[in-house]
Write a structure and sequence with these properties.
The protein has about 650 residues and is an alpha+beta fold. It is built from 13 helices and 19 strands. Helix 6 crosses helix 13.
Length: about 650
């Protein structure tokens, strides 16, 4: 990998000079997990998952409410620090709860202040490539990633995240030519500028933002109690904040060993770890570290551990605090009441005082579209999509034949939230991502897309002409075509068609010579300045944090349409009334084909129910767009639904003809 230790400081980003980052923040390292055996600490019995039965009248069963105590957070940190000491690798160690509250950041003596992001393959760094970032921020991002990607049905680490965001899946020298990772682009979610994710000043209410989005650097794991995910641990000890480009070898990653030690006593159940779960016929890699290779960390004392708890601006004031139990009012995500949502087993976002943050409501854009989504139509869309979730067979959950678990988000054409509803145990990351997807499908299908991108900052305006040149259509991005996230994602890959060597990059992507997961193209360019502003705040170089609301695009009624950034992997469709765009629905939390199907069928069924709303007319869907690539023509995709998707029905091709 490119990289190595670099001097602290931001380089000029796209010719825009930024303040140097010079204040000291400690670093930390990562960990992994496997079935304990042989020497090292012995992990206690880890409960295996069993199918859960929803209470009568509910479509989903809620997980038990578990949380980490102050003593348990201290134990986790002490174990990780003991492993770091045994390896001579001083680390910064972060622990979060399931909804992203930072429960403590601990810096060992000698822990590094910064970690280095790898540069572009051709040396021409853009966005945040080749820069140094605070190690504490990296540790927090890893911990949040382990917590947010996991649930009672799946345990994913940052090593898994590395696999699913690269240009080929699985990433290795022998898989060149395969399509990109299934969650390509998910690293640019949970952003510090998000208008959805909570900030520390909001109190202990989640889900919280991440200083660097989701992390693909090994060294982050979920933490479990009694089979219930209660948080995550992240470590930064080595000099680089990177990703693993080759799953064929076994890494000796110091961050991963240190973080793995922290999970002792809080291990993910073996049967739900990522190496028991596959996508496209490939099993994920949960960890390259093993328990039997650890030092003896059981019984490590926090009181006797050298180092200190450190404050991190915007995340933790420098104290160890207890976690909140997911599902409680204090967590910010709780069961919906009957008046909030009629279908049992649904969860909503709450403000800590019992109020639903995003109640189902009518569209706010009547002045723009004339006949916006009504509250009854919004209710129908979310209810019908929720019914599809309950019938759908999960891809990424164990045991087999579990229900899919996802979050649904609905927006109007201004990007305003008309309702967010989750199934009970959906992974947390899908809350922010489903909203990104809904907004992205709406934005790129709209008549205003080109004009607002042209009014953006830095290089953002250039992408309009790139798309038009690539598609040979001077009117694209003016509402002439409906783009689902799968369609826009086709155009946001460093190869077009996806993964095929020797082909050009999509117009929304960096060329492969300049691409890595830290610079994806338009997606990263839209939030570049927000990330710079936030990291200056984290380091104390600015007293002002980045604004709440991502991108520097024009604001509509005082808010950006893309208030938490865009997303570029499947799981959303725009919402229409006849030929008129009126919003978007996004789905995230399971396999991408499941996400596609739930959004598409949920909207279709709501249209049948109401007789007033519909999916995009077939003649304007993006799969009518054909791109000339060399001597052949390649058609964009709109959605892709899985085979045999339902638990209660053997039907195939359930989206065919709709």
């Amino acid at each position: 990998m490119p990289g190595g230790r670099k001097s602290a400081g931001w380089k000029s980003l796209v010719a825009v000079p930024l303040l140097a980052l010079t204040l000291t923040v400690s670093a930390c390292g990562g960990g992994g997990s496997s079935t304990p055996s042989g020497g090292g600490p012995t992990a206690g019995p880890v409960p295996s998952p069993t199918p859960t039965t929803a209470p009568p009248g509910d479509l989903f069963a809620a997980p038990a409410q578990e949380s980490l105590s102050v003593a348990e957070v201290q134990q986790i940190i002490a174990q990780a620090a003991a492993q770091a000491s045994s390896q001579g690798a001083p680390a910064t160690i972060a622990v979060t709860d399931r909804v992203g509250n930072v429960l403590g950041v601990f810096a060992m003596p000698g822990a590094r202040d910064f970690v280095a992001i790898p540069g572009a393959p051709n040396g021409q760094d853009v966005d945040i490539q080749g820069l140094n970032v605070p190690a504490a921020g990296a540790a927090i991002a890893k911990a949040i990633t382990g917590a947010y990607l996991s649930s009672a049905g799946n345990a994913f680490s940052t090593r898994v995240a590395s696999q699913i965001v690269q240009e080929h899946f699985p990433p290795s020298p022998t898989t060149l030519g395969l399509e990109s990772g299934p969650l390509f682009g998910v690293q640019f979610s949970q952003l510090p500028c998000s208008d959805f994710s909570a900030r520390a000043i909001d109190g202990l209410i989640g889900p919280k933002r991440s200083p660097l989005g989701l992390s693909a650097d090994p060294g982050g794991f979920p933490l479990y109690k009694n089979g219930v995910v209660v948080g995550g641990i992240g470590v930064a000890a080595d000099p680089d904040y990177t990703f693993d480009p080759n799953v064929l070898d076994v890494d000796n990653d110091v961050d991963e060993f240190i973080a793995l030690a922290g999970t002792v006593g809080f291990e993910a159940p073996v049967e739900i770890r990522a190496d028991r779960i596959s996508a496209d016929g490939t099993n994920f890699r949960y960890t390259d570290a093993t328990y039997n290779a650890l030092a003896s960390v059981t019984g490590a004392s926090f009181a006797g551990t050298a180092g200190s708890v450190v404050p991190v601006n915007g995340y933790n004031a420098g104290a160890i605090v207890a976690g909140t139990a997911y599902g409680s009012e204090a967590s910010g995500i709780r069961p919906a009441t009957d008046t909030e949502f009629s279908l049992g087993g649904a969860f909503v976002m709450s403000d800590g005082a019992g109020n639903n943050r995003f109640p189902i409501r009518a569209g706010t854009d009547g002045a723009d579209v004339g006949n916006p989504i009504t509250q009854d139509e919004a209710t129908a869309i979310l209810e019908e999509a929720f019914k599809v979730i309950a019938r759908s067979r999960a891809q990424i959950r164990r045991p087999l034949d579990s229900q899919a678990q996802v979050t649904l988000s609905l927006v109007d054409t201004r990007g305003q939230i008309l309702g967010i509803v989750r199934s009970a145990d959906a992974p947390i990351f899908g809350s922010d991502v489903s909203l990104q997807k809904a907004r992205t499908a709406n934005f790129f299908s709209a008549s205003f897309a080109a004009n607002e991108l042209l009014a953006g900052d830095l290089e953002v305006p250039q992408y309009v002409q790139r798309v038009r040149d690539f598609l040979g259509d001077p009117n694209v991005l003016t509402g002439t075509f409906a783009f689902a996230d799968r369609s826009g994602g086709n155009l946001a890959r460093p190869y077009f068609p996806d993964g095929e060597l020797g082909t050009p990059n999509g117009p929304l992507s960096r060329p492969i010579e300049q691409f890595n997961p830290f610079s994806t193209g338009l997606q990263s360019a839209l939030v570049l300045q927000n990330l710079a502003e936030h990291l200056q705040f984290v380091l104390g170089q600015s007293t002002t944090d980045t604004v709440r609301g991502c991108t520097k695009l024009p604001q509509i009624a005082g808010a950006p349409r893309l208030g938490n950034g865009i997303q570029i992997f499947p799981g959303s469709v725009p919402v229409y009334r006849g030929n008129q765009l009126i919003g978007g629905i996004g789905v995230s939390g399971d396999g991408i084909d499941q996400d596609d199907m739930i959004s598409f069928l949920g909207l279709h069924n709501a249209g049948v129910r109401t007789g007033t709303i519909n999916n995009a007319p077939k003649e304007i869907r993006a799969d009518r767009i054909v791109v000339q690539v060399g001597s052949r023509q390649v058609r964009l995709r709109y959605i892709n639904c899985p085979f045999a998707p339902f638990l209660d029905d053997p039907s195939q091709n359930v989206c065919e003809g709709l």
